[in-house]
Specification:
The strands form five sheets. This protein has a four-stranded mixed sheet, sandwiched between helices. Strands 8-7-9 form a three-stranded antiparallel sheet. Strands 3-4 form a two-stranded antiparallel sheet. The protein contains seven helices and 13 strands. A hairpin with a 2-residue loop joins β7 and β8. The chain is α+β, with helices and mostly antiparallel strands. About 20% of the residues lie in helices and about 20% in strands. Pfam families: CAP (PF00188). InterPro entries: CAP_dom, CAP_sf.
Length: about 260
Amino acid sequence: MNRLRTLVEPGPPSNMNLLKWSDTLEICAMKHAVTCPTAHDGFKCVMASENMFGISWPLSKEKLESKARGWWNEMIKPGYDWYNANAVNGKWASAGHYTNQDSARTTEVGCGLFDCSSQQKGSQLVCKYRTTFKDLGDYVEKVYRLPNGTSRLYEVGEPCTNCRYGNGWCYKDLCVKQCPQGTKESGECKCALVDRCNKGTLNPDTCQCECDRKHVGLKCDRSCTNFGNCKNVDCNDPVAAKTKCPAACGQCDCFDKGE
């Protein structure tokens, strides 16, 4: 799945997270798979999106990879508008498998597989996905409903230059909070923010841009702005300085550098 996440089109993605395996999601997926289901479980076990399919026995790596690629190919058939996160034919649900697998905000996956041949059914594979959205309503609102571009599944650009983790660590062209053990030394995991800290300097140990006091953002490319009238602001008041008039009081460096 991670390899497919780097192949989205148009691409490459600049903020795609590396999917990590979740034992919790695996347990919940298996609980549903053993029922030999014909429908989704309705979030009974965990608040996570879900893909599922039947597969014939005996199993093989090729069959499993083919099913995962089938979900990914939904952007081709029935067609997918990556920018607005809607199927081109207007039926967004028909591309739902693709959104689960290839949203930049998906961070974890766990799958369960069960042989349902005793019930004269094929085997059932269930995969559950965890995202950075607050809840299901937030997920539906931001991924499926908005037609103005704010619901994009990912951003296009150089890999790992718009990561949501507040740094630019890049492993196999995917964003990671920290490089997996040994991969920094081997060169597999690199900092993608080298020469990209516009109004700041790069800390090579953290792969973070340390912005000057007038700029914010992952790459220090956004001017820090005031929120309201700051003509008579008392910059000795920490609340006013940091939350109302950070630019006027030179407090931009107090703000989180992530998106």
